[in-house]
Structure formats: structure tokens, C-alpha cells
Amino acid sequence: MALVIGNSAYRNVPVLPNPANDASDMATKLRSLDFDVIIGRDLDLAGVRAAIREFNAKLEGADIALFYYAGHGLQVNGENYIAPVDAELLSYIDLEFEAVPMNMVLSAMERQTHVNLVFLDACRDNPLAINLARSMGTRSFSIGRGLAKVGSGIGSLIAFATQPGNVALDGVGRNSPFTAALVRHLGKPGRDITRELIDVRRDVLDATDGRQVPWDSSSLTGEVVLKPLSKQEAATVPDSKPDNAAELVFWDTIKESSDRGEFDAYLQQYPNGAFVALAKAKIRNIERLASDGAVAKLKGAPEAAQPPTPGVGLPASEERFAALPPQEAQPDERDRDLARSIQKELNRLGCRAGIEDGLWGAASRRALAQFAEIRKFEVSALEPSMTLLEQLRTQKIRICPLVCAQNYQERDGLCVAITAPAKRTIKNPVTPPTKTQKASSGTCPADAHIAAREAIPRGSGRGRTAMTFTHSCGRDLTCRRPGRGMRWTCSWG
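Below the sequence we write its predicted C-alpha cells.
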């Protein structure tokens, strides 16, 4: 039993070109695999709820339940929502009355069937989310980019067009890259669904030059084959088919690693393996992160020779985001423009996002984490989004505190060098004795201490332990003390 929904003709935001086509082609594919399909195109709120109700009524007794959705979706507080074509979402209250929680479908599937397959091609950048963010003000950081990760119950598989928190591409043809790959690979005779999704992932990586990486979460307890082999086909399959169990174990061991050498080893051992495209994307990501680190070091090197840029180091709050997955792919020009605008706003607020080049690296993530910590916002992912940009633009004053390096001080919102105090000038310098004064010492005071008080300006011996000078009477006078702050002892030379 399958429910297929594709929403393109949105009434309050720009129309999406592909979802209606995606839904039609997906429904045709599923019918060819003997699914009973309920299809809905361009459904408003009442239409979405009616389709879900009909699907729920027909689930009992089904061997496999499948749900496919293409169109706008959004996540709020970690929960995913379907956006009907009449949604406007001008306030947070509208979310409950204009959007449909995806859990309404997933819960019904898990209650009634033992095998559940979910395909979500709804990770597009969503203008409805921007409307909602504007209305929520300071709470808008609970609105994440793309869709949130969904926990699957036993016997379920959930596949996203891209990683949770990321945005998928619409594509330039009839279908999105993700749906085109699904239609191409689902239902191959004798193939397990997990193997088919590996082929889907490889095709999407190739079609998007590594910018989009499909993601899935599975708790299936056995193989799911949408089109079993006929007896005649099974008899012709050779028994010597290679077992890829070793490759799967190898990949499971390294897939979360940040060591490029492990992925190079995989490519060397399995040059035609199932995860070659994903391994290459991982390597590109590791190289990008290494480049970000090198740039950060170069930027820090000349700080002793020039005034430092205002900012602070890594905040403790960023430890919460250490496990968040980095972007797997190089950004396109539109993403770079968005990242550049966010970097500019973070620097304006004093959060030190680094060079405003549109490359979203470690410095930009640190700046965003610091901003979120100071403003007490919950951020679902340390990645650029239109929602984030709108929120930053609402801030009118400096957010991140100014911390200056050694030998610099804060002055009028800037770090300026501390200038050394001017040398003290002696207001009453000792007048050199005249020849007449030198010829006679009869005018010199008998007590050398009295002579010293007369001749030495107050404060001129600060920091010294010995002084020798010529009194105006012509005689040399020497004063010494054991240490700073102690009493002077003076005598005539």
C-alpha cells in the first residue's frame, strides 16, 4: 500500500517545478511493482488530511506500507511538517492549523504494518519557513534548515533526499535528482532496498557534483525486495555472485572517520565498490576542513605586528555542536552568496566569522555558536540559511563582546595599541657650575643631604639606586640606596 503526494502549485510562495511530476512518475513506478497507490497532487490542507485518512484506512493487512512526499516541508523544534499548497504560515499559531505533522503518517504506518518505507524529497529551501521565522522573532532559531532527523521504529526505513538539516536541489529536468534516481533503481529484480538506495546515492552524487548526499535511517530486520526474482530468473543467477559483506563492514568502520587515509585505503581496496562516490565526497570535505584550518593559522600569525581583529575564541557552548555533520559538498554560487551575507552580519555583530568569502568553515561555525550562546538561542545546525540571515539582520547592536590582545585596549568599540607613557621631563634641571663657582667650594652646604634636596628635583630618582651629579657650587655629589623605596645616603665626592 502506498501514499504518494506531490505539491507544486503553492498559492502564497513561488511554484515548485518538479514535485507534481515526481509524484506522477513515482506512482507509475510503484504500480508496476504491484502497489495499491493513493496519489495526491497539489493538495490543500483538507486534501492532505483526506489522503492520509484514506491511506490509514487501507493499511491493515498490507505487507509493505510506503509513503512518498515531494514539495515544501519544514522542521520546527525537531519535528517535520508537510506544507499544503494553501499554507501561508504568517504566525506560529498557523503552524498547527495550516501544516500537517509527518508523524501523523509515520505513526499510522508503524502501528499497522511490519515493513514501512518512507521517501522524503522535501528538503528544499522553504520560503514558508522564512514567513514563520519572522513571526516568531527570538524563537525563530527553533526553525531548522531542511528536514530534521527522524527516528525510525522497528521494521522501518526513512530516506531523505539529502542529509538532515541540509537543502536538496530541484534539478533542471522533469524530476529532482533524488526522485529520478529512485524511479531508475527501485524494483530491480531480486535487489534488496538497501542496495538500491546505495545506487540512488551514487547517482545523486554524480548528478549534483557531490553537492547533495541522500541519507537514510533504517531499522529493517531483514531484506526487503520490491520485485522478487521469478523462478526462471532465479535459476539463471550464478551461485558465484561475490559477497560484499566485507566491504559493508569496512565502510561501517570508517564512514564516521575524519582521517583521509582510511578513505584512500577503501578506494584502493574497492575501486568499483558501492561507496566510491561517497568516499570521494568525504575526502573532498576533509580537504576543505584542512584548508579552513590552514587559513585560520595564517590569519593568526601576524597578530603581534598589527592590531588584532575584535573577537573571542571558541565558546564552551560549541561543544554541543561538535557532533553535527559538516557540509559534505562544495557550495554553489547561490549558497556562497548566502554564506557571505551571514559572515558579513556576524562580523558586524562582533562575532568574528573571518574573511567574508562565502566559504562556510570552522571560523564561521564558531562565530555562529558564540552568537547563539550569548543570545540564548537554540540552533538546530551551524549552517547558513535564509532564516538565520533574517534573524541576524534584526540585531541592531553589537552582540559578541570585544576582547583585545595583550598591549591593546578597548577604546570606542575598537582595539587600539597602548602607547608608552611619555618620558618625564625635569622641570628644574641642574645648572652646570660657572668657572667662578668651580673655583671655590666655600658656597657648598656642609651637609650633603641638604645639598641633594636643593639640587635634585623631586621624583627624578624614581626607579634608581645611585645618582652622581655636580652641585651648583661646583662640587660632585653622590647618592646611593640599597634598593628601590629605601632611604638615600648622600656624600660629597
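Confidence is low (pLDDT under 50) at residues 136-145, 301-330.
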